[in-house]
Amino acid sequence: MRARVACVTSRAGHPPPAILRPDGKVSVPDVPAGPPLGLATLPYESTEPELPEGSVIALFGDGLVEDRRHDIDEGIDRLSTHLAQPGVTLEDIGGTVVVGYCF
């Protein structure tokens, strides 16, 4: 049986992370939105998604997944498709997303 890994995450003005699980499925946990760092004095809410060992956490800014013509949900769907390519290494994913992803 594979071990479970704990991860605590919160948001400070950016989209939530995308999680690529070892089975190839991508999910985006429901992380409460918070203001950008430095603009608030209130504590940030956090969530603790349970991740299977071998999961990949993809952190990204909204500039990667949205623009004036495309909403953020469409961009996150496109990013999820890139992340879920079978047999792709982390280096390949990074190169594909950064070089060929933009709208």
Structure description:
The structure is a single chain. With 103 residues, this protein is α+β, with helices and mostly antiparallel strands. 26% of the residues lie in helices and 14% in strands. It has a three-stranded antiparallel beta sheet, covered by helices on one side. A hairpin with a 5-residue loop joins β2 and β3. The longest helix has 12 residues, at 72-83.
The chain-level structural class is: alpha+beta
Inertia-based shape: globular
Number of helices: 3
Number of strands: 5
Distance between the termini: 40 Å
Characterize the main sheet: 3 strands, antiparallel
Q: Which strand order does the major sheet show?
A: 3-2-5
Unreliable residue runs: none
Key phrases:
two-stranded antiparallel ribbon, 103 residues, three-stranded antiparallel β-sheet, alpha+beta
Helix and strand layout, with pairings?
Layout lengths: L3 E3 L11 E3 L5 E2 L22 E3 L3 E3 L3 H4 L6 H12 L6 H11 L3
Antiparallel strand pairs: 1-4, 2-3, 2-5
